Structure formats: structure tokens, C-alpha cells
């Protein structure tokens, strides 16, 4: 009988449990941050925010099981953790801002994600053949823009819970944010292993404890949360389908599929089971189907988490069943709102301090990819320069597109969407159109990243956390 590949091994129960929890710890804050951002933009109450957070955990667990265990031709059957992608946060906030009645914002977002997920599912086998059009110069630019676009969120959190309030931006709030930031940095600098992996989570906990004497910690959500609950399907209303929002989420889906493809290529090398075209297509089907089903339980667009790929490389534990156990934990956490409510207790300034590390590491991860993108070539420098400039417009000049139709603003207000489209088009123009198949300027998606186990992929490398 042939020996099982390490990916398919089932470890002893205790090791399965502890290793599964470690995967959850490595990505927990990354799953809860997007619903916190979007929920705050919508203006949800602490109790509703808790519900949305729990729903994201539940949906992430389902997507992780789908990816690791697999059904039919769905699922890469590799040790992947799936969760809410950071790529969708800025476009979703843009949708919220452009929706007159905020009660309609989440149904519009959910409707757009369902359509994008289903279209992505159909496109998965074809997309796996088009990887050459998304080299590091494109993906690195997009991931850098994700981090940069989210930094204003962290700065806003650091200034206090209520924008425009008399004490907004006071020394008290900024001081708490700074303390949280320093705690995370100290843990990252002076610890190792599991403790180092959960530095952001520990920073949130310790920062919250320190904030209690200052009177900025709100425990109301904890008191109102149910001990046991279920993410009621379409809790915020039946999905609505708006064309501009759908287009915006389809762009995000393309970015997400690009990120997941690179992660599968990297993880395949790490676990010594190279991801071929068939594996990539199956993995993308799991990502996209998980995304399409996620809104049913009030979750958002799902994608693989790169920091968990790094965890596999570091621990050398390659079993996909370990990650499946982590997915089970995520589902249980989603079914116990009182656990999810703990996140709502964390004061905004504390989140802001940790968010600087969280979102900054996303941008740094993109820069890491750009370092492998062949920037010694003038064409690639132009692609990065123009794409980042276009992507920064909504941040640097918020009123730049004020004369455009309101529906177009959903896309134009997202620097990630506009930057991604610009990077893809420029890459085609400069590196593909009119070039021979062996043209030296055309870079392969994994070119320059031979030491994959030592260089974590371009995606969200946020320690809680992104994507």
C-alpha cells in the first residue's frame, strides 16, 4: 500500500486541535476586520456588528472546509485557510457611501458578491489558463494599493469612536493607539513561535485592558450578545442587484482569484505537491463558490489567507486536515455570538494602533512582490507608477471624480479597483501586445520567487489578519 502524502495525513487528535487553533489565531483578526470596517460604515449597532462578525467567521469556516476537504472538482485539497478578502473592503465601503439609504447597503453588497461568485465559479477553469497575464508587476501593485487604501481607516480609528466629536483626535485616543502599536511591535520583536504569530491579537487584548481606566471600553455588546446563535440567512434583507456594485465586486473577484492562484502555486511547492492547472481550477472553484454562498449567511467575498501559507512553511505541518479542524473552529465561533462580541469590546483607538501594523503589512507584502517584478525594466516601472498614481486618486483627491455619474463612483471611489484595471491594461499594452512569446519583458506570475518557502506570497501578510 503506497504511503500517504503528508498533505493527506491525519495527525494525532491533540496535535490536530492545537495546530488548527494556531491557524485560526494567525488569521482571526483578518476575518473580523472587514466586517468591522463595513459594519461601521453602514452604522450598525454594537449588537448587529457582533452578528456580522460572527457571520463572517461562520462563512470563513465553511469556505475553509470546502477548500481543504473538497467536493467533486471543487477544492484544491491543500492546507488553505479561507476568509474575507481585504481586496473587497474599500469597494464595499464605496458602495455604502454611494447608497442613499444605508439599510440597502448590505443587501446591495451581498447581491453583488453572489453574482461575482457565480461568474467566478464559471470562469475558474478558464482563469487558470490566464495566469500569465497577472505577473508580479500587476499583483504586487494591487496588493500595495490594498494596504495603502486601508491605512486611512486605521488613522480614523486611532482618533476615536465618533468622528467630529469634541474629543476626536485627542491625546487620550492617540495615546491608546500608540500604546497598542508599541505592544504589537514588542511582541513581534521579543517573542517567537505561536506568541509571535498572534501578536496583533495580543495587542488588541492588552490594549483593551489598558483602555478600561480611561473609560473608552464599551462592554454593552458583550452583555447583549446571545450565548448561542445562528447566522440567520439574509438577516439584513434579501439581496439587491445593482449593476455598478456588481461590476465593482467582479473586479475584486478577479483580484482575489489572482491572489489565490499565486498562493496555490506557492503552497504547492511548500508541501511538495505542485499545483497544476487542474488543482488551481479546483481551488478557484472553492474560492468562488464559497464567496457566492457566503452572503446567504451574511458573509463577504472569501479568498485564501497568505499568512497561513507562511505558517505551513514555518511549522512544516502539511496536513490539510489540520486546516480543516481550524475551519471547524471558525464555524463554532460563528455559532457562539458571545465569542464574536469580544471583538466589539475593543475600543476604536486600540484597533487603530493594531490596524497600522495590520494594513501596513499588506502594503509591505505588495512591495515584497514588486521587488520580484523585474522593476529594472522601464516598462514595468511605468506600469507600477501609473497604476499606483491612479489608485491613490480617491485617497489623495476625494473629490477628483465629482463630475462623474453617481453609479460610476462605486468603482472610481475604489483605488483598488481602478488601480487593478489600470495595471492589467498597461501590462497587456507594454508586455504582451506586439511581443513575441519569448519577449524578455514578459514576466511569469512566479518569476523571481524561486525560494517560495522563504518568501511568503504577495497577499495579505497581516498577522491577524488581510486578505
Automatic annotation (TrEMBL):
Pfam families the UniProt entry points to: Xan_ur_permease
Organismal lineage: Bacteria, Bacillati, Actinomycetota, Actinomycetes, Kitasatosporales
Name the UniProt record assigns to this protein: Nucleobase:cation symporter-2 family protein
Keyword terms: Cell membrane, Membrane, Transmembrane, Transmembrane helix, Transport
Main location (coarse class): membrane
Similarity remark: Belongs to the nucleobase:cation symporter-2 (NCS2) (TC 2.A.40) family.
Domain of life: Bacteria
Region (Disordered): 440-467
Topology class, membrane: Multi-pass membrane protein
Presence of keyword Calcium: no
InterPro entries: NCS2, UacT-like, Xan_ur_permease
Protein localization: Cell membrane
TM region(s), chain numbering: 21-43, 49-66, 78-96, 108-127, 134-158, 170-187, 199-216, 236-255, 321-344, 350-370, 382-404, 410-430
PROSITE patterns the record matches: XANTH_URACIL_PERMASE (PS01116)
